[in-house]
Amino acid sequence: MTQLQMIDTTKSIAQQDENVSAVLMYGSFTKNEGDQYSDIEFYIFLKSKENFSAKKWVNKIYSTTLYFTNEYGSEVAIFENLIRGEFHFLTINEIDVIKSWEGFVSFSDFDQMNLIDKDGFLTETLNQIKTKLPDRTTNENILFLSQSLLNVLLTTSNLIKRKEYAHAYQSLSNVQKYLLWLIRIATNQTHHWESPTKSLENDIDKDWYSEFRLTTSDLDTGNLKVAFQNSLNLSKKLFDELGVKTDLKRLLNRIE
């Protein structure tokens, strides 16, 4: 069974289940980016959660080989066909959670996201959302990202000096995250913002990609130090490109 077939099955089960009021789909398939390796992802709004078993409900879609709640509160299914699913089962009284995402996430086409809406509550909620695509390029956001980058650069520097190389290796991944967000702003490629590595090979040109690649490392001490120095160099380039304030540039120059 393919992902599209499983989405259709989910829709059919929800349509027949009197306890289901609405189903919101999110992720790649609402952005016309889904393929054979993509997850299927849903918010399912119930009239009642009394005596409700999420695991049993999901197993009606297709047999699962693993089902658990991850550290973010998503109920994760790995199906027997090795397709991965994420599910959030909430009561219909909690549907306003969708409005809390406004300004923080990029919404897909509402028609693609609105899979089932028996009582009209989902459509009503979506219609109240005005900001579908947040502006990631504001001066306020650039300032926040620059400050955050400086913070994790200093942390990584201190860990290297302390010779906690495994910890520094992990910290360097945080550096890379903020570098990527700033690169996406500098190159006007902000449409995969929530997961800045997603489709990176296609989203940014080969020169930026090559510079970012130099910030990655294995756990070899020498390679880790080189990757960190390259991260500093790329940070300086981005601060210049994006007109980051002089006091932040001075602080950046003090980190080594």
From TrEMBL:
Signal peptide residue numbers: none
Official protein name in the record: Aminoglycoside 6-adenylyltransferase
Domain Lincosamide nucleotidyltransferase-like C-terminal as annotated: residue spans: 138-248
Pfam families to which the protein is assigned, alphabetical: LinB-like_C
Transmembrane stretches, start-end: none
InterPro entries in the record: LinB-like_C, NT_sf
